Structure formats: structure tokens, C-alpha cells
Backbone:
């Protein structure tokens, strides 16, 4: 028996919205520790990793580890039937063919349940090395979204350069080129969540496809902060912490000069 | 020109 209850059901809506354009089908693995999902996009250029700890749920029970093969677009359609303030409960048997989703309105006046058919999905699980990154940038997620959206109008590839002073996002295309530099905030600058913080061992410059960075920014509603982890010649990690429950991390392979 | 690398060239299959 698997049962997981989230008072803030809208969180689940936001998570699926953040993944479904990148990944069409995925196995969500449920265990005593919580929910995890690892999936690559169809062209194997990026990888999305979701982690939701059991302690982040209001109720969590998982007697036996199970894997839920989900069509994320279809799950998104069902989650659209939930109100934004609804409590969402997920339920499945030990050898499930379906996932039951129950939505309860805050005053308990409306209770609905839906069953989503599960799929057998063959996936390749990748071992992600535990890397110490040379640069870690923490910045407002809305700022990152704006930069990616703005630069995507000009070109396809973004050069991200991280130095101690700041992070520079550069793009060039047929119409011209552009740069946006965000500088490290000084300690006195406003709210913690609005700050740009850079931890750097050595400067890093890497090229990335803006199209994929754009997919990642669908996670912006999940939190005020995004963290970028970079080292030379390895995939960037774009990590969105989800307050109190876990995180969603996107890995994107760089573009490399031939 | 830059070439898009695949995720599979960085992370090994489990």
C-alpha cells in the first residue's frame, strides 16, 4: 500500500507543469524515504531529477517500494481537475495498474477521485557522480527565467561565464548579440531570496542550448531561488529547491567546440 | 561551431 497526502496540493500541479514539456513518460519510484524520479528528454540531452522526502508530506505510507509508470501529460490533465487550495492524496496498491488521486477542497465540501492508468516504461537509470562543482550560483529564480527568455529571442546558444564578480550570460544570433551580467549582491542588499551569491573555486565558461534552459524555467513557480552548479566540461545543474520537501534538479549537457 | 553533447557521454548507465 502506498499513500501520500499533500495539504498543499498545488505543489504537485506545479511539479508536473515543470516536467511535462521536457519528459513525456517517467517512472516515479516510491519508497519509505519518499518519491524520486529520474528521466531524460527524448533526445538525451538533459536529465530531470525529482526528490520529495517522505517528511515533506502530511501523511506518507509506503509498505513496499513501487514504481509508478506515468504519462506526465495525462497526469497533468487529471491534476487540472484539482482546485488550487485542494488537499491531494495519491494512492496505489503494491502491484499497481492505476494511481488513484483524491482531491479534497479545504472545507471538505467537495471530494473527487480519479484513477490514472499506469504504464510499463523502460528507462535507463543513470548514475550521477557526486561532483564538487567549481562554481555554485544562487540567484532569484524569476531573474534567471527573465534572462533565459530574453536571450532566447536573440539566439540558440547561451554562453555562461562565472567569475567571482558575477555571472555573465551571452548570446549571439543573426540580428546581433547581447550580454546580461548579474553581480554578486553585497551583504547589505535586501532580502536573502533576492540575493545573488557566488561560491567559486575557479572561473567556468560553458555553452548551453537556451531551448532547454527555457524548459527548466517552468519550475520557477516552485520557489524563489534557483541554484546553478557548474564545472568545466560537464553538465550544468539547475536546481530548484522546494521548500520543506525536496528539490527538482535539471542536468544539461554542454555544447562543446568541435 | 559547437556540438551538443549527449547526457550519455557524461553519466553512466546504472
Residues:
Amino acid at each position: 500500500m502506498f499513500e501520500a497526502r499533500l495539504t498543499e496540493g498545488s505543489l504537485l500541479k506545479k511539479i508536473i507543469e515543470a516536467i511535462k514539456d521536457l519528459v513525456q513518460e517517467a517512472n516515479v519510484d516510491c519508497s519509505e524515504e519518499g518519491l524520486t524520479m529520474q528521466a531524460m528528454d527524448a533526445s538525451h540531452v538533459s536529465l530531470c531529477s525529482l526528490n520529495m522526502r517522505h517528511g515533506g508530506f502530511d501523511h506518507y505510507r509506503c509498505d513496499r517500494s513501487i514504481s509508478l509508470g506515468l504519462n506526465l501529460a495525462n497526469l497533468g490533465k487529471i491534476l487540472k481537475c484539482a482546485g488550487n487550495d485542494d488537499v491531494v492524496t495519491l494512492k496505489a496498491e503494491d502491484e499497481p495498474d492505476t494511481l488513484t488521486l483524491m482531491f479534497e477542497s479545504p472545507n471538505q465540501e467537495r471530494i473527487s477521485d480519479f484513477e490514472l492508468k499506469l504504464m510499463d516504461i523502460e528507462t535507463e537509470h543513470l548514475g550521477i557522480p557526486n561532483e564538487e562543482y567549481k562554481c555554485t550560483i544562487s540567484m532569484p529564480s524569476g531573474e534567471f527565467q527573465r534572462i533565459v527568455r530574453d536571450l532566447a529571442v536573440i539566439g540558440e546558444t547561451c554562453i555562461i561565464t562565472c567569475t567571482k564578480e558575477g555571472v555573465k550570460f551571452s548570446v549571439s544570433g543573426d540580428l546581433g548579440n547581447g550580454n546580461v551580467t548579474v553581480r554578486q549582491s553585497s551583504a547589505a542588499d535586501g532580502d536573502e531570496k533576492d540575493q545573488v551569491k557566488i561560491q567559486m573555486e575557479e572561473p567556468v565558461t560553458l555553452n548551453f542550448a537556451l531551448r532547454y534552459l527555457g524548459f527548466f524555467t517552468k519550475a520557477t513557480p516552485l520557489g524563489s531561488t534557483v541554484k546553478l552548479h557548474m564545472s568545466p566540461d560537464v553538465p550544468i545543474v539547475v536546481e530548484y529547491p522546494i521548500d520543506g520537501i525536496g528539490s527538482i534538479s535539471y542536468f544539461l549537457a554542454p555544447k562543446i567546440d568541435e | 561551431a559547437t556540438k551538443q553533447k549527449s547526457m550519455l557521454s557524461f553519466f553512466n548507465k546504472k
User: Anything to note?
Assistant: Chain B has a mean pLDDT of 88. Chain B has no helices and two strands.
